[in-house]
Amino acid sequence: MSLYRCDPEPFSMTLPSRVQLIDVGPRDGLQNEKTPVPAAVKVALVHRLQAAGLTEIEVTSFVSPKWVPQMADNAEVMAGIARQPGVRYSVLTPNLKGFEAAVPTRPDEIVVFGAASEAFSQKNINCSIAESIERFAPVVEAARAAGIEVRGAMSCTVGCPYEGDIAPERVGYLAGLMKQIGVQRVDVADTIGVGTPRQVQRAFEATLAHFDLDHVSGHFHDTYGQALSNTLSALQMGVWNFQSSVAGLGGCPYAKGATGNVATEDVVYLLRGMGIDTGIDLDALIDAGVFISEQLGRPTQSRVARALLARRAG
Ligand SMILES: CC(C)(COP(=O)([O-])OP(=O)([O-])OC[C@H]1O[C@@H](n2cnc3c(N)ncnc32)[C@H](O)[C@@H]1OP(=O)([O-])[O-])[C@@H](O)C(=O)NCCC(=O)NCCSC(=O)C[C@@](C)(O)CC(=O)[O-]
């Protein structure tokens, strides 16, 4: 908690020297694709991300294939990965059924995913917030007994597509419940990318009442073009874990109109420019983004990639 400031001080006083990025492209980035993306392409994307230096990759989710058909190949994708030492592979598991299917695929971390908004919880996982916690509790207990790390994703921490603004107290309430059931770290997610820096800081302030700075991460969609500003505002508080998506892939099937996550390339460029180490090779990351964008048949959403590719082209 030592770095945390309610009133952020100038950058040089509070910025972490190192940032850990989790690329969620293979999961969050691809879950909303209408055309099936072959498992081999997903595996190749994971390989390119780890070759670029990503040490945390959110690979897939063990959810109902009726709800999210694109993730139906979860076990095949996990089995296809040539694991690299030092890389953590995570998967989403909304209930015991998903957890039991995930365990044989040897995830390093499972993610239970709840929402600060009741309406979003219902739309996304078909239950209330309280019911979701009841479902997660045995998943968390089983994961920890099996030595698997547990992360909790908290959606709609500043805004909800169905309820509008979300008060920080509701974020704090959810974070407290996640803590109570044994979740080890949580993501503060702006699912629909509506947040602005001070709102995002308030969501973190509410979360930091339950988790310390080493156990919170930022997950910002870029729908309104605020994701990099929000990243900077969280950095100013000392947050040093962030999620992002190569090529800015993504969108949530239950948040219509929401665009992808902030592009990993753009975050790496921002951090590099500020002298903050990520261990990621930006050129190799851009190549990974080009690969998946070509597979999907559309241009990268990363502005940094577009700019640097134009320079490469001469
Ligand atoms: C949670 C459920 C399953 C509840 O769905 P439900 O219908 O309430 O579940 P149920 O227990 O009544 O089961 C219904 C059917 O689903 C099956 N089922 C049940 N569980 C599983 C499972 N784990 N894996 C595979 N199948 C499953 C179950 O066997 C049964 O099959 P049937 O008898 O009809 O053939 C459903 O709502 C669901 O799958 N939702 C997934 C939603 C999702 O993946 N959303 C996107 C990820 S969240 C996100 O993107 C936000 C995040 C994390 O990125 C952060 C942010 O930006 O906010």
Q: Report mean pLDDT, rounded to a whole number.
A: 94
End-to-end separation in angstroms reads 47 Å
What is the tally of beta strands? 10
Q: Would you identify the CATH architecture? A: Alpha-Beta Barrel
Enzyme class: lyase
Keywords: Lyase, Metal-binding
Pfam families: HMGL-like
Pathway: Metabolic intermediate metabolism; (S)-3-hydroxy-3-methylglutaryl-CoA degradation; acetoacetate from (S)-3-hydroxy-3-methylglutaryl-CoA: step 1/1
Structure explained in plain terms:
It is a single chain. The protein has 314 residues and is α/β, with parallel strands linked by helices. The protein has a single domain, classed as TIM Barrel, CATH 3.20.20. The chain is 41% helix and 15% strand. It has helices at 11-14, 25-29, 39-51, 74-80, 96-102, 118-125, 129-145, 168-180, 197-207, 227-236, 264-273, 282-296, 303-312, and strands spanning 20-23, 56-61, 88-92, 109-115, 149-155, 159-160, 164-165, 185-190, 216-220, 241-244. The protein has an eight-stranded parallel sheet. It has a two-stranded antiparallel ribbon with strand order 6-7. The N and C termini lie far apart (47 Å). The model is unreliable at 1-13 (pLDDT under 50). The chain binds 3-hydroxy-3-methylglutaryl-coenzyme A (HMG). 3-hydroxy-3-methylglutaryl-coenzyme A is lined by residues 28, 31, 61-64, 67-68, 94-95, 97-98, 113, 124-126, 153, 155, 189, 191, 219, 252-254. The site of 3-hydroxy-3-methylglutaryl-coenzyme A has 24 residues, from α5, α6 and β5.
